[in-house]
Structure formats: C-alpha cells, structure tokens
C-alpha cells in the first residue's frame, strides 16, 4: 500500500480561487477592498521571503496590500506607534507583524497591541480565548490550514484518535484544541505529546490521525505508526543544500517509509506550507467583511 498524497498546493489553489470570487463580490456589491499590512523589522532573509510571498498572494487575489519594512534598530515605541496607526486606518483590515522581532522588542507587547479585529494571524489573547471557547474568531493560520486539508480530503475526524506531536502556541496547542471541539473537523479524542512524553511510540501507534509539528527532521519513522494512519506533517527542516544551491527540505516524518503504511500523508514541501498564507488571506477577507457588518 502506498498512501494518498494530500496536496497542500492543490488545496490552497482551490481555496484561493474561492477567495478571488469573494473579493470580487465585495468590491462589486459593497465597494469594499480587503486590506492587509505586513510589518517587517530588520533583514532576516527567511522573513523577507515570507513577507514577499504574502504580498504577492494578496495582489493575485485582489486584496490591497502594504508592506512596511523598518530597520533592525527600530525602537519598540516606534513599532507600537505604527501598529496603533494601522489599527485606526479604515482601509486596513488585517495587520501582520512578521516574527521573529529583534531581541530588544517585546514580541508579546507588540502582538497584544494589535486590534483583535485586525489580528489576522490569530495570535492575540482575545482571539486565542475565543478559539478555546469555540466562538467566532480569527483562527491561527497553520492550524486552520491543517483542518482544511483534513476536511477537503474527506478524512473523518469525529471519534478519531488524534495524536499531536508538539505543543507550541502556534501549531500544537491550537490544533489539539480545534480538533477537540464540537465542530466540523473536530469531535476527535486528542492526545498531545511533547519532549517530556514518556512513551511517545505508544501514543503515535494508536493514532488514526497523526499531526507532527515538533521541528525535528524525520523524527517519526514507519515503526512508530499503524497501518492506515493519516499523517499531517507540519515540519519544514533544512537538511542540506543541492548542487544548484537550493535548500533541501525534510518534514518531521520520514516520508518514504511512512507513506508505505499510511492511508494518506502530506508531503514536504507542498503540504501544510502553502495552506498557511492562504488561510491568512481568508482571515483578511473575513476581517473586511466583519468591519463592514457583513458577518
């Protein structure tokens, strides 16, 4: 048996086509253009690349996009003032401050300063709290992408044994929370594993659905999963460079061996990665609708 490949590239493409239609309808019916600002402090190459991809995607969908790039020595006070400025800008519906920030800036203070109604990353405590309660809010983009991949691939989550490896605030905890909830794509029995889990293999072998977001290349091997498991690999790890100078990437799951036992699996690259920016765009459109009283 070889697993069905769950393509994040194809799923993201389908969602973006839906968003294009939504954005065009908002412009035509309500004269409303969703607006996103991305704020980058410093010259981290990975952050620069990611922000550029966000802006390109927004442009392709018809979303108004601004990028503000600040020097690495920008003061916390100046960054907070910029956030406040965009909180009050009616043409901006989503504010994204690219992480990581330079060490002299308190990340939490900056993220908490963003208007929760414009927090399209879903990191503000108000949105995190609403997510925990199952209320309408902006869901964090990568966990939301994981849920969409499962839903659109026809994977049944209700009653399933779900094991999440990794307890970060960005992926592990919110994925576990969302899959517990009484909602489509939820109603699962969830186990959350981490670096202090005593017998990781015991848990991963029980999983009907295994979500791995630990940041360790190829940590999950074929002998750690059962036949017919559905595997969502969130990890993206640089393990070398090709002769042409391109980064060689690997997930947290040993793809070649595990795909022979799994019913379905996401690849790396081309799995969860493309979904993250797409769900950011979905949140931005949602924010625009909410600002106009349409949701």
Structural commentary:
The protein has 295 residues and is α/β, with parallel strands linked by helices. The chain folds into 2 domains: 30-117, Leucine Dehydrogenase, chain A, domain 1 (Rossmann fold, 3-Layer(aba) Sandwich); 141-274, Rossmann fold (3-Layer(aba) Sandwich). Helix content is 40%, strand content 17%. It is built from 10 helices and 11 strands. It has helices at residues 8-30, 45-61, 76-87, 107-113, 125-133, 141-152, 172-180, 200-204, 255-258, 273-291; strands at 4-5, 35-41, 64-70, 94-97, 161-165, 189-193, 209-212, 230-233, 237-241, 247-250, 264-265. Strands 1-11-8-7-5-6 form a 6-stranded parallel sheet. A 3-stranded parallel sheet has the order 3-2-4, with helices on both faces. Strands 9-10 form a two-stranded antiparallel ribbon. Helix 1 (8-30) runs parallel beside helix 10 (273-291). The chain is globular and about 55 Å long. The N and C termini lie far apart (45 Å).
Provide tags for this entry.
single chain; about 300 residues; alpha/beta; Rossmann fold; 2 domains; six-stranded parallel beta sheet; three-stranded parallel beta sheet; 10 helices; about 15% strand; globular
Furnish the topology, listing elements before pairings.
Elements: E1 4-5, H1 8-30, E2 35-41, H2 45-61, E3 64-70, H3 76-87, E4 94-97, H4 107-113, H5 125-133, H6 141-152, E5 161-165, H7 172-180, E6 189-193, H8 200-204, E7 209-212, E8 230-233, E9 237-241, E10 247-250, H9 255-258, E11 264-265, H10 273-291
Parallel strand pairs: 1-11, 2-3, 2-4, 5-6, 5-7, 7-8, 8-11
Antiparallel strand pairs: 9-10
Helix pairs in contact: 1-10, 2-10, 6-7, 6-10
């Amino acid at each position: 048996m070889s697993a069905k490949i769950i393509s994040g590239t194809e799923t993201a493409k389908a969602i973006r086509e839906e968003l294009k239609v939504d954005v065009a309808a908002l412009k035509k019916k309500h004269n409303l253009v969703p607006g996103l600002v991305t704020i980058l402090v410093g010259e981290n190459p990975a952050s620069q690349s990611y922000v550029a991809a966000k802006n390109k995607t927004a442009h392709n969908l018809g979303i108004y996009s601004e990028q503000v790039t600040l020097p690495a020595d920008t003061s916390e006070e100046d960054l907070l003032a910029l956030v406040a400025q965009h909180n009050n800008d009616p043409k901006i519906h989503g504010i994204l401050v690219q992480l990581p920030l330079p060490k002299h800036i308190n990340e939490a203070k900056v993220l908490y300063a963003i208007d929760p109604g414009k927090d399209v990353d879903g990191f503000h405590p108000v949105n995190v709290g609403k997510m925990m309660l199952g209320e309408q809010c902006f869901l964090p983009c990568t966990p939301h992408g994981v849920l969409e991949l499962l839903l659109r691939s026809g994977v049944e989550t209700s009653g399933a044994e779900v094991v999440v490896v990794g307890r970060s605030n960005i992926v592990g905890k919110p994925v576990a929370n969302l899959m517990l909830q009484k909602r489509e794509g939820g109603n699962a029995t969830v186990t959350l594993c981490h670096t202090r889990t005593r017998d990781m293999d015991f848990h991963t072998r029980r999983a009907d659905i295994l979500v791995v977001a630990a940041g360790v290349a190829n940590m999950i091997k074929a002998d750690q999963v059962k036949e017919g498991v559905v595997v969502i690999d969130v990890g993206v790890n640089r393990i070398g460079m090709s002769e042409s100078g391109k980064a060689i990437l690997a997930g947290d799951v040993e793809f070649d061996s595990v795909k022979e036992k799994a019913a379905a699996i996401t690849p790396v690259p081309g799995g969860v990665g493309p979904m993250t920016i797409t769900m950011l765009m979905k949140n931005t459109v949602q924010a625009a609708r909410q600002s106009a009283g349409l949701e």
